[in-house]
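Problem 12. The chain below contains 536 residues. Write out its predicted structure in token notation.
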Amino acid sequence: MSLPRRAFLQEKESDEHVQKGFVYAGCLAGKFLFLLCLAALTAALFFLCYPKFSYNLLAWLALAPFAIAIFNLRGFWKTFLWSWLTGTATFAALYYWVFVTCRDGGGLSISLSVAAWLGLSAVVGIQFALFGGSCYYLRRSKGLFPFIAAMGWVALEYLHELIACYILGFPWFALAYSQWNMPALIQVASITGAAGVSFAVAWVGLEIGYALVVPSFKVSVRRMILAACIFLITYGAGAYYLKHVPSNNLLRLRAAIMQPNIDQYKKWDDAFVEEIKETISAMNAQIKGQQVMLTVWPESVLPGMAEGSYGSWMSQLAKESQSFQVVGTNRAEGKNQYVSAALFNPEGEIVGSYDKVHLVPFGETIPFESTIRSLFPDVTVLGELGFFHAGKWPQKLLQIDQISFGSTICYESVFSHLWREQAKTGARFFVNITNDAWFFDTAAPYQHLAVSVLRAVETHRPVLRAANTGISAVISPTGEILSRASFDTRAILQTEVSLPLGLDVSFYTQWSDWFSWLCLVVYLTVLISSFVFIYE
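Solution.
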């Protein structure tokens, strides 16, 4: 072969390599953009299905792009990392109010507020990473993948809440909470807990995603039909139950839920004590002579302790209204301080109290306090936090005229075991008091309300929710909001709620987290089997 001919062939071969390189780079860039779009779509769907937007039907699609990505990723660590980044982006969108609260409510600098916001999002995003990483192996189950993966989602939600109970966590979001304003879709929670709702929502989304990646058109159509059937069965069963739920008008409680809308910055300023007392006194006067049996005030409504002068003043208000009064306050016992709810009877005596069991991390308590203070000795705000002690558990139910009721304070609405165990021991209704003024007019007060709706359905007990600036509400045992106050308004909700005559409890209350445990066992069994199959 002549030299010019050889040079020509070598040059042609070199051009072909360059072209292949460009094609390969283009494919990588295209796949990267595709996965980026799927991550963004997942985060957007989650963001829009929760309050404030509450486009709850989007939740049934939220895991579809996630499933598509799982089947397009190669390698466990790539899947794990993509899932973590997707989870971090999702929670950053949902937790945007953490930045607002830290900056405007906590007085932190912008940099520290951003660090708190993104740091929390990244840590909670590990839940997505574990889910995505396990799905990398679960996808080998092929047609069973959506069903098993949905169980995995429920298992990880449950483990997050369990870890938060005993160590540290922030289980503010569950897929079930996105359905808070659709009573027909959440009735299964009285049997399975919120986990059953999360399972149905996750299963539908994963089925749709799986249908879009299987090569067979017929299989794809069948999976879409299955997804539609899951949704329709969940809705239909709930709607049927709501039409046939037995009504009870024999035992009724007349209550007043107070939303004083006291400015957060006035609450602990001595210059505004008289103004706060005047506001509370004026609201109390409005229910005088209204035959109100129970008045519910929000968390920390008193600008001081229930003991002492504030307690004497509140005692007088109880006498004037001739009603039992649940009052959010702080309580001291020796050197310990508790976030508490005190119960005054119509004679003005404190006849019971409930101490908050699960304190807000970095708001009312500092986890791993000594370590964190040594790492951040110059952050002065830490000196103002962490001085509260957690209440003991269990605690005696509060009572009004032999009617027992359960109590939870603020953040405790996310811990289903507190509600379930109080319902099991005889609570006929629940009082949830909170101070969401710290969140300002962000999505957080609306997200917080959504959680209480699922707790009402789980326990099949009405919930009286009093929030300082909102959103106060009366929630029926089936999760319907009977009345609510607007955010950032002063309001009194007077209501009559039906109470159960006997001590019958929901299936979920009786059998606890049986469905979550079932999902956990099946999920781990299949996951471990997948590991064994791969490495044999």
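Discussion. Residues 23-244+516-535 form one domain. Students who got a different answer should revisit the alignment rule from Section 12.3.
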